[in-house]
Design a protein that fits this description.
The complex is a heterodimer. By secondary structure, chain A is mainly alpha-helical. Chain A is built from twelve helices and no strands. Chain A has a single domain (about 35-55, about 75-300), classed as MetI-like (MetI-like fold, Orthogonal Bundle). In chain B, a hairpin with a 2-residue loop joins β12 and β13 (about 280-290). The chains are: A mainly alpha, B alpha/beta. The interface between A and B is medium-sized, with 28 and 39 residues.
């Protein structure tokens, strides 16, 4: 009987990686992100070549008698900051902090938010009402004020932090960011719940767990991945905000946020613009890269294409 | 009066319409028939300048003595509404939800004439009265949500005939409507045409619908006219193989098995479903025998899909019982019963997870119940090449997808399959193939079917017994042949009279 059936024509290749790498916007984003990551990885190499550590101060070489930092020269490639530290080396180490905070915080938020949103939307009823209320309550907390009080709570009797400030920043950002993911995935799940393909799984006798894992999550995942890429830059900026306010990554550890804060508060960027420009450009490139990647991934994952 | 000659439409490299010609005289009805993608709508949109800048149109289209192809947008705009009236498929999409019916019918007039408000209102009320809207003085200020589908389409027709156009174009104007409403709209169009001497161009995918009103028929396929001629000749002696295929696709012949004493499989007793103040299902009781195909027919809102969902175990009824071989079940369905009742949904685009391959979709029933799978064999049972297993649903046609959905439903060898409008979203030729497949599967597997449809023709072709639903109640229950030959209920009779194409003998039981 199979002879009589029209044979299936050759299917077009559909590996996700190859389609993403062929999408122009995604490729541009990937290259930009790779550059930032490579540079962050190369921080110790650059430090070794220049002989400057990220927190080493060189008041004699890098500051004029009036205390004004020098501009770019053979020794300090992108000049120095107000404390006589190497701007390039600090910016590269700062990239590490920004990515180290941004990526885990965004990932935790995405996983937590998806779990809460999908469970809430799938089971509905009282559980959904409780979880939705919790989401609304968290959303109504002011971010900066809450972060400030959490930092205050984190200080022990002797004035030193109880847990690492980097960890705290990750937790604080994740604690705020998951709500958006939860709302997004709850809405998607509510709609998917009554799609015929989910009902077909119910009539097959599939368990809730199986339906969530096999039918709901694959349909929710693309939106979450895209949202992850959209939220990552926001969360890097949130880290910068907290560091800028002095409650994030503590000096002298460099992060893009506290570098920008330094440059801004001392007004020294007026004589040594690189002090401000380098971390700002780093932040800009990272945000641009992830935004380009997410819009590319959105195009690739759209089943209509 | 209106004619198109050697019309071509190109979208980029795609040649959508290839040299189409047809003509219609005043007081006559021309039907343009073809399946989706045949170019039937595009031809008319191109001829009346409604394609916008989307395509390149060459050839000629004349209304009276006026050439329309290449005419200025301004000139075309003056013609549309005034000399050419349009009625489209979806009256809801074409009515603004926040404007009253009266305002929107009035716009058809004010777009071309300056009229005083009181005069306009009187004319709109007259028009609504003419298209059969009862109490037009009161209904004129209603919003589209207050109108039923049929009334909305009447309002659209009122707008289309407001300026007494010479040509009326109806594009799938009755496709979204219930069968009795469809019959009344067709009647209305014919009456208006008689009274005003309008030329009517009726575009449809359904040769059955067209058969009741057409004087002449043009059959389109892939942008070309394959056959054209007087309706009588086309229906009595079609010449082109494609026309013959289309006609045989809408020709329904009863295949009911003789009523024998089959052991009872499904028992539905005193089923009720209420939503707030609405009663969707009202004290419904029926049985389905072993290996029997029972049709559940009714118009939208009759409760047929609600009953289907309750029997499928997807919806908990307000009251009443459903039992399989004497064993009652509810929501969630007990694990012993669950695999024995499976479902085929209407829309194969929605019932297959777009992110999983056909292989993954068809493995699911076996994986859930830890049974050994032979997917190649399953695919052959629904007449699909196993090569399609690695595809995603988006890479299959509508008919192929519905075959996959049927394969999933039969994978667990269920005793009962609930099929909710399984062919309604398919082209007519594909419908015929799927119905043949379902009949064959019933013979081979002796599965029972609860077959839900609004289409009595489809019911006639497949079902042994038929239940007619109206307002949530069973008004008729009997062997298909008996119900079709001698309906006991006046509603059933109206439903049967409204079957398109019955006068041409397209539906025989």
């Amino acid at each position: 009987m199979s002879d009589a059936l029209p044979a299936a024509p050759e299917a077009p290749p559909r590996t996700l990686a190859s389609r993403i790498s062929r999408e122009r916007s995604a490729r541009f984003g990937l290259i930009t992100i790779a550059t930032v990551v490579l540079l962050a990885g190369a921080a110790p190499i650059v430090a070794a070549i220049t002989g400057h550590g990220p927190t080493d101060q060189y008041p004699a070489e890098a500051l004029s008698e009036a205390g004004v930092p020098v501009g770019p020269n053979g020794d300090f490639w992108l000049g120095a900051d107000g404390n006589g530290r190497d701007v390039l080396v600090r910016a590269l180490y700062g990239a590490r902090v920004s990515l180290l905070v941004g990526i885990p915080a965004t990932t935790i938020a995405a996983v937590l938010g998806t779990a809460i949103g999908v469970v809430s939307g799938y089971f509905g009823g009282a559980l959904d009402r409780v979880l939705s209320q919790v989401t609304d309550i968290v959303l109504s907390f002011p971010f900066v004020v809450t972060a400030l009080s959490l930092v205050a709570l984190n200080l022990g009797a002797d004035g030193s932090p109880r847990i690492s400030p980097v960890l705290l920043v990750i937790v604080v950002i994740a604690l705020f960011a998951w709500t958006y993911v939860a709302r997004l995935t709850r809405g998607l799940t509510l709609e998917l719940r009554h799609r015929p393909f989910v009902e077909a799984a119910i009539t097959l006798g599939a368990s809730h767990r199986r339906i969530i894992l096999r039918e709901i999550l694959p349909s929710v995942a693309p939106a979450v991945i895209i949202y992850w890429a959209v939220q990552l830059p926001t969360n890097i900026v949130a880290e910068a905000t907290l560091s800028f306010l002095g409650i994030g990554v503590q000096a002298p550890t460099p992060s893009w946020g506290n570098m920008i804060a330094d440059a801004q508060s001392t007004s020294l960027y007026q004589v040594q613009p690189w002090f401000l420009v380098v971390p700002a450009v780093g932040l800009f490139l990272t945000v641009l890269g992830f935004n380009a990647l997410s819009s590319g991934v959105r195009n690739v994952l759209d089943p209509a294409r | 009066m209106f004619g198109v000659e050697d019309l071509h439409v190109r979208f980029g490299t795609a040649h959508a319409v290839r040299g189409v010609s047809f003509a219609v005289e005043s007081g006559r009805t021309l039907a343009i028939v073809g399946e989706s993608g045949s170019g039937k709508s595009v031809s008319l949109l191109a001829a009346t300048g409604l394609l916008g800048g989307a395509g390149v149109v060459t050839g000629s289209a004349r209304l009276g003595g006026t050439e329309l192809v290449g005419a200025s947008p301004g000139a075309l705009r003056r013609l549309r509404g005034k000399d050419i009236g349009f009625v489209f498929q979806d009256p809801l999409a074409n009515l603004h939800p926040l404007k009253t019916i009266g305002e929107q019918v009035g716009e058809a007039i004010t777009a071309h004439e300056r009229v005083r408000r009181t005069v306009l209102r009187r004319r709109v009320i007259e028009l609504l009265d003419e298209v059969g809207i009862r109490e037009p003085q009161r209904r004129v200020d209603d919003y589209p949500v207050h109108f039923s589908g049929g009334m909305r389409q009447r309002a659209m027709i009122a707008a289309a005939i407001a300026l007494n156009p010479r040509l009326l174009i109806a594009d799938e104007a009755t496709t979204a409507l219930d069968v009795t409403v469809q019959a009344s709209i067709l009647e209305l169009l014919q009456r208006l045409q008689r009274e005003h001497g309008t030329a009517l161009v009726f575009v449809s995918h359904d040769l059955g619908v067209v058969s009741d009103i057409a004087d002449d028929v043009v059959v389109l396929r892939a942008g070309e006219v394959v056959e054209a001629g007087p309706a009588d000749r086309i229906y009595e002696a079609p010449e082109h193989p494609y026309t013959i295929e289309l006609l045989s696709a809408v020709r329904r012949t009863g295949a009911a098995r003789p009523a024998t004493d089959r052991p009872r499989l499904l028992e539905v007793r005193n089923l009720n479903q209420r939503y707030a103040s609405v009663t969707a299902v009202d004290d419904v009781s029926f049985d389905v025998g072993q290996g029997e195909i029972v049709g559940l027919v009714g118009e939208s809102g009759s409760g047929k899909s609600t009953i289907g969902r309750i029997v499928s175990g997807l919806l908990r009824p307000t009251s009443g019982t459903v039992a399989l071989e004497g064993e009652p079940y509810g929501v969630p369905v007990p694990p012993a019963i669950r695999p024995r009742i499976q479902v085929v949904f209407q829309d194969p685009y929605a019932s297959l997870n777009p992110r999983r391959t056909i292989r993954a979709i068809l493995t699911e029933p076996y994986a859930v119940h830890r049974r050994a799978a032979d997917l190649d064999d399953l695919m052959r049972q629904v007449e699909l090449d196993p090569g399609y297993l690695e595809r995603y649903p988006a890479q299959l046609s509508g008919g192929q997808r519905q075959r996959v959905a049927i394969a999933r439903a039969i994978a667990l060898r269920p005793d009962l399959i609930v099929a909710d409008e399984p062919v309604s979203s398919l082209d007519v030729t594909t419908q015929t193939q799927i119905l043949a497949l379902l009949r064959r599967l019933r013979e081979e597997l002796d599965t029972s079917f609860l077959f839900i449809s609004h289409d009595l023709g489809v019911i006639a072709e497949l079902c042994d017994r038929v239940l007619v639903l109206a307002n949530g109640r069973v008004v008729e229950n009997g062997p298909t042949t008996e119900v079709f030959d001698s309906p006991s209920n006046p509603y059933t009779r109206r439903l049967l009279d409204a079957i398109p194409g019955r006068k041409r003998g397209l539906v025989n039981v």
